[in-house]
Amino acid sequence: MTLEELSARQRAFSEARAWGPWHTPKNLVMALTGEVGELTELFQWLTPEEAATAAEDPALRPRIDDELADVLLYLVRLADVLGVDLIEAANAKIDRNETRFPPGVGRTALEK
Amino acid sequence: MTLEELSARQRAFSEARAWGPWHTPKNLVMALTGEVGELTELFQWLTPEEAATAAEDPALRPRIDDELADVLLYLVRLADVLGVDLIEAANAKIDRNETRFPPGVGRTALEK
Amino acid sequence: MTLEELSARQRAFSEARAWGPWHTPKNLVMALTGEVGELTELFQWLTPEEAATAAEDPALRPRIDDELADVLLYLVRLADVLGVDLIEAANAKIDRNETRFPPGVGRTALEK
Amino acid sequence: MTLEELSARQRAFSEARAWGPWHTPKNLVMALTGEVGELTELFQWLTPEEAATAAEDPALRPRIDDELADVLLYLVRLADVLGVDLIEAANAKIDRNETRFPPGVGRTALEK
Fold first, then answer.
1. What is the structure's pLDDT at A14?
2. Within an 8 Å CB–CB cutoff, is residue C12 touching chain D?
3. Does C26 contact B at CB distance below 8 Å?
4. Which residue in D26, D45, D70, D74 has the most chain B C-beta atoms within 10 A of its own C-beta, making it the best mutation to test that interface?
5. What ipTM does this complex have?
6. How far is B36 from chain C (nearest CA, A)?
7. pLDDT in tens, D29-57
8. Is the pLDDT of residue D112 over 80?
9. Does A56 reach chain D within 8 Å, measured CB to CB?
10. 3-state SS of B43-106?
11. C41 CB near a chain A CB, below 8 Å?
12. In chain A, how many domains are there?
């Protein structure tokens, strides 16, 4: 399934529940913050080593999947409401990043 | 382009810059927070009406595209590092939501 | 009670539970994100009018108090771990803002 | 200076700029997210060791002070707009935490 198809599925889901009036850009940006907060809570007390293998932990994995899904779903819904093509925007951003961050320079470039 | 192809492009971009050691789950979760913060800053002082048409504002639109792209790119990178299939996780979440939120009940369901 | 005294109380609380090794700057920044996410969830689906009187809602008020408290407590803990005097830093910031934002110009200044 | 006095100073600053109409609870929660995002960006690519001594880095310290101040200032403004006494709420929360988290049990309690 493409991201566009996922977006259409999520839109149909919202329309069937008459959530349109609540799915405003400001509300969806806030919902995205809430979900990133929940995702962060899964990782905040883990050591870097534990975090690196968190997805292999059978108790943690479903919660990670769930929170990553929630972040994606609100992001896709927000982009849909705003009329933004996420894949196109992301590719345009990588195009720009290829100029901004020349290959091979390590963290220096990351910190720009 | 599928989300999987975008993820592969983003992975190649990171590898060419030797960013692997910094692209740990905890760091990427933090980077996601940073980008959601930047996205939020674009909307925080807008009225609901202004926010609804923000994507039609020629000065604002490129910044919205840019921040939505950054959120998606770090999300895709994080899922890749963790070995999670985002599209699969998101569909599984909608499947569950179809049971959790019966259609037609408006905001009551949203607040669960 | 001053903020400094609250910080000392919070530090003693953490020390009694041997949480020092987990209260690193990165972990505490993440914990702050988690709490801001929980606070955001209380407001995200409210209309602006509902949000304006949310603190008068007897069901919502204890949850608002609770999340505002959690944000403050992690902020105070983080500043303590970093050795930053929050009141001093905040006053220095208002001093600078008095120069950056001349009085009387409304939202224009906000958007700087 | 007490937190209450800082809040009064911040309120006077906002009133002199006629920011009241924009300082709604939802907008201020979003502004808090934006500032936590900026704070997070200072720490996201640091190793745990670098983060532990970040406040001693003369280039980083003013930026840390600045972002911690911004988080506190929006938190204080939000609490003021909502009519919440932050110090009282935080003490009530520590009181509850003393029951929820018995001393001496390490990270187990943190993860509750």
1. 96
2. no
3. yes
4. D45
5. 0.95
6. 11
7. 999 999 999 999 999 999 999 999 999 99
8. no
9. no
10. HCCCCHHHHHCHHHCCCCHHHHHHHHHHHHHHHHHHHHHHCCCHHHHHHHHHHHHHHHCCCCCC
11. yes
12. 1
Query: pLDDT per residue over C3-28, tens digit each?
Result: 999 999 999 999 999 999 999 999 99
Least confident of A61-70, C94-103, D86-95: C94-103
pLDDT category at D102 given cuts 50, 70, 90 is: confident
Q: Give the domain range for residue D103.
A: 3-110
The residue with tokens 């520590």 is: D94
Among the listed ranges C10-24, C93-107, D41-55, D77-91, which one has the minimum average pLDDT value?
Answer: C93-107
D56 in reach of chain A (CB within 8 A):
no
Both tokens of D78, joined, read: 């939000």
Question: How far apart are the C-alpha atoms of B43 and C15, rounded to whole Å?
Answer: 40
Residues whose CB is less than 8 angstroms from the CB of residue A85 and which lie 6 or more positions away in sequence, other chains included: A4, A79
**Distance from A79 to chain C by nearest Cα, in Å?**
17
Mark yes or no for CB contact D26/A29 under 8 Å.
no
Average pLDDT of the residues in B67-81: 98
Cβ-based neighbour number of residue B40 at 10 Å: 25
pLDDT at position C111 is: 60
CA distance linking residue A89 with residue D12, whole number of Å: 42
CA distances from B68 to A100, B40, B108 (A): 18, 10, 28
CATH number of the domain bearing residue B97: 1.10.287.1080
Contact call for A72 and B75, based on CB within 8 A: yes
How close is the nearest chain B Cα to the Cα of D78, in Å? 13
Measured between beta carbons, the chain D residues lying within 8 angstroms of B35 are 37
Is the minimum CB–CB distance between A45 and chain C shorter than 8 Å? yes
